[in-house]
Amino acid sequence: MQRKQLLDTINGSECRFATNASASAILQDLLSHLLPTQYGFIVMTIASSNESFKEVAQNKYGCRVIKCALQDLERTVYGEVDRSAAEKQSARDSLTRLLCRLTDNCTELTNHRYGSRVIRCAIRSKNLSAVRDYIIRRSVLGHVEALYRNDFSLKVVQLSLKHASPELKDQLMAKIDGARSSREHSAH
């Protein structure tokens, strides 16, 4: 099937494709090989509402599509790949939309099996420090004790410690120490 026909088939069914085992692999391949102006409609549709974004981000296959999009868009926006001004602008628009949805829903995603994978992808990013700091402030700092209760969110806390700015790392360590002290006192 030609790329144009494939993109036409996907158009209008982006979220359905992203959450399907076989179709999501095709989407990831397209995101890796097409230009942002060619696949931007897929990202914009997935991020068109909190509901559609969460449907995809909290899905076993959909979280992979979002991670792939975040990584490719970041490489384009921050000049890791050579792209035209139009491609960079398209990538910037798509990345901005994705990051808005990500930050709007970061607390819920942090506690979700698949959503936490998207959060971890953003935290690992070397270029998205403002987003990383926002996620840590909003979804990790005030919830350390609760986040330690499941493996998915615990991984978010661990990555936050590794990638946080020095100021946030100090705050996070203080919260972790406070949570430990609280557990030790309640155990006695």
Automatic annotation (TrEMBL):
<dbReference type="InterPro" id="IPR011989">
    <property type="entry name" value="ARM-like"/>
</dbReference>
<dbReference type="InterPro" id="IPR016024">
    <property type="entry name" value="ARM-type_fold"/>
</dbReference>
<feature type="domain" description="PUM-HD">
    <location>
        <begin position="1"/>
        <end position="188"/>
    </location>
</feature>
<dbReference type="GO" id="GO:0003730">
    <property type="term" value="F:mRNA 3'-UTR binding"/>
</dbReference>
<feature type="repeat" description="Pumilio">
    <location>
        <begin position="101"/>
        <end position="137"/>
    </location>
</feature>
<protein>
    <submittedName>
        <fullName>PUM-HD domain-containing protein</fullName>
    </submittedName>
</protein>
<dbReference type="GO" id="GO:0030154">
    <property type="term" value="P:cell differentiation"/>
</dbReference>
<dbReference type="Pfam" id="PF22493">
    <property type="entry name" value="PUF_NOP9"/>
</dbReference>
<dbReference type="GO" id="GO:0010608">
    <property type="term" value="P:post-transcriptional regulation of gene expression"/>
</dbReference>
<dbReference type="GO" id="GO:0005737">
    <property type="term" value="C:cytoplasm"/>
</dbReference>
<dbReference type="InterPro" id="IPR033133">
    <property type="entry name" value="PUM-HD"/>
</dbReference>
<keyword id="KW-0221">Differentiation</keyword>
<dbReference type="InterPro" id="IPR001313">
    <property type="entry name" value="Pumilio_RNA-bd_rpt"/>
</dbReference>
<dbReference type="GO" id="GO:0005634">
    <property type="term" value="C:nucleus"/>
</dbReference>
<keyword id="KW-0217">Developmental protein</keyword>
<keyword id="KW-0677">Repeat</keyword>
<dbReference type="Pfam" id="PF00806">
    <property type="entry name" value="PUF"/>
</dbReference>
